[in-house]
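Working notes for the structural subgroup meeting. M.R. asked for a predicted model of this chain before we commit to crystallization trials. I am recording the input and output together here so anyone reviewing the notebook later can reproduce the run.

Input as submitted:
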Amino acid sequence: MGLGEAVGKLIKGNSYLIVLAALILIALALAYAGRIYMATGTETFVSMDTQIYKDIDYYSKNFQSTTFLILVTSDDVFDPAVLNALEDMDEQIRCNPKVANVTGLHTFVRQASKLAYGSEEIPGNRADIVRLLSSAPEGAAFIVPNEHHAIVTVELQGNVDEKDEPSILEDVKRAIEWSPLPPGTSAVVTGKTAMMLEVQQEMMRSMMVMLATAIALMVIALWLAFGHASWRLLPLPIVLAGIIYTGGIMGLAGVPLTMVSMAVFPILIGLGVEYAIQFHNRMMEELGSGKASGDAVVSTVKNIGPPVFYSMLTTSLGFLSILQSPLPMIHDFGLMCMIGIIVCFLTALFLLTSTLFILARLGAIKVRAAAPGRIEKAIGRVAETTTRHPIVVIIAILAMLIGYSIDPLVGVEIDASSYAPQDLPSVVLFRTLTAIVGYKTDDLVVQVKAPDIASPETIRWIDWFSEYERQNNPDVLMVGSVATMLRQYNNDTLPDSKEAIAKAMDSVPPGLLRQYVDDFRTTSVVKMTVQDHPTDVKISGLERVQRDIEFYPPAAGHLGLAWRPVHDDGDDIRLADERQADHDRVGRLLRALMPLIRL
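Returned structure, recorded in token form:
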């Protein structure tokens, strides 16, 4: 007895048990599928066991935090009533324990007032407010782009989980609603973070629309193409069961839903229905030949099972190549496609044939002979034409080679605002913010590691680098570092001895110092706000900063420059392989998305 015949007899003797087990598994899969979450963080672009991820993760946990921007529009943002309203809004937002800091026009005025008058009270007239802002730090230019607009930044705690950000965003929106604003003044949440959160929600909605559309189209296809078959739509719910199983496996394994893996389910509908149709049609043919239901199911599995299995196997091997991608979200996509088509094949093999066997035993299947339909005849003509004219195959091969040769010309888009419909409210608000400020901004961070960040040599180098980039790099709009912070709290003078540096650091508020120096005083960051550019220009900007560092390297004892990932053993990983265009694009994407230079 062959394997196919043995499986067929297994289904014949246990059909009710198989259906019952399938229903139980569906219930379990639905429960685990509820654990699936949307992920767009660093772990979707860089493997967690690489050095670049460890560097970025250390930076994220110690220095970086999620930030929401609040765009305030008013007839006059310098009106004391507006600043007092921002104070009230500040207090409302800080009620959330996961909010670390709120910065805006009111905080700049309070800081300037303390330096000028020794008091943090907001002046009661517009002229004093404008005069105080004239001596504010350079960051005020972004906070107050003009007299009709102001920006409030809401910085979250560094340990906030990505899954908690949507609820915090809603809290910020409610705080704005509860804060009374003067007449003619409005406030809305915007910025890249808020936009991406709404884009994620839109992706989830779009996925449901894609699934519904795929199901509707498949219903039409099955109804038109297999009108002669009994229970012609049965393959569709069988495949949906397979998709539910796949979703349950994703939830059980902790595989997140990403911008790429969300395409898995529509793909599985198309592939899975094909497997189910093969078993369904063969079962109808066997029953139509006069065989009993038991013999028909055994013959179906024995004869059609192997070719469908080989079809599934070759498709799996195609997805296997995707597993070589260095991007985790691409790897997860290939893995879930492989698992999904295997599950859909097993679902068609066991659940569909068991269901058809039960229906046949109950007499619910009407077998009738039917002449080939129009679609079958058209497909037959195409196949016959192709076999008689091999030039068609040659043309297809040439088209494939031409497509492969021009594939490197395909660009990479990393502008988050282009990922969603352009009429999405958050995208419209983000474009409005860009128009008001006059440019798009991005962050570029240099991470410095040293035995002692507070040493005079390290502080001097950070000060030189910060000032050099601010004055000589046209893309740099603002620079913040421990050196700029020490100057601000030391009468615009950089301390030149270890004792003076320690004293100056003690005078800096801990919350501000923590933005640039870690608790161990072994790592510091230089944060640069730069103009946003296309991907290629961003890469050129990173290379320029690298050349600047190589021109004047830090003092001895620092770790070597590695703006590309570096293994723990120090071997350089070349993410951009010039010999392979696909590797080159992946490397460019990684470097553009992870603007982190490690020293």
